[in-house]
């Protein structure tokens, strides 16, 4: 439970930091496209993680974690475009690029773990013949 709360807070913080960052993008067609796309993907990371935490089954949890990983990776893509296009100096977005990369890795790993078959908890009876 503690890890869940920490990740919920971390994804919320990521979204808030992104929302502050996009205010610094230029008011150009390209800047607005990047701002809108990044805002959508970055805020979806936390929202979808919260939904995953309320999953009704292990399969649903794994599926939702896959969506979270995709949104985190998409956020990384938009951040790379901002950086590589020199819309914002790299030093100002480096920590967000790193965080997006870490979140992608965390949720990708979590999805893989959640997708693995779990050993049965039912003890098998041995026949005594």
Weakly predicted, low-confidence segments:
none
Number of domains: 1
Q: Count of helices? A: 4
Report strand %.
under 5%
| CATH second-level architecture | Up-down Bundle
| Helix and strand run | HHHH
At the first level of CATH, what is the class? Mainly Alpha
Shape, principal axes of CA atoms: elongated
What's the Cα radius of gyration? 19 Å
Largest sheet: none
Within CATH, the superfamily carries the name 23S rRNA-intervening sequence
> Mean pLDDT, nearest integer?
92
- End-to-end C-alpha gap: 46 Å
Oligomer type: single chain
Q: What is the CATH third-level topology name?
A: de novo design (two linked rop proteins)
* Class based on secondary structure composition and strand pairing: mainly alpha
Number of beta strands:
0
The residue fraction in helices comes out at over 70%
């Amino acid at each position: 439970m503690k890890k869940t709360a920490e990740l919920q807070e971390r994804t919320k913080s990521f979204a808030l930091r992104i929302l502050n960052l996009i205010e610094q993008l230029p008011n150009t067609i390209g800047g607005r496209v990047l701002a809108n796309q990044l805002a959508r993907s970055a805020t979806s990371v936390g929202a979808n993680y919260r939904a995953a935490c309320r999953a009704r089954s292990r399969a649903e949890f794994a599926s939702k974690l896959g969506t979270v990983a995709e949104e985190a990776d998409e956020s990384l893509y938009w951040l790379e475009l901002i950086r590589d296009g020199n819309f914002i100096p790299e030093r100002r977005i480096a920590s967000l690029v790193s965080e997006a990369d870490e979140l992608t890795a965390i949720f990708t790993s979590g999805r893989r773990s959640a997708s693995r078959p779990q050993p049965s908890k039912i003890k098998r009876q041995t026949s005594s013949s």
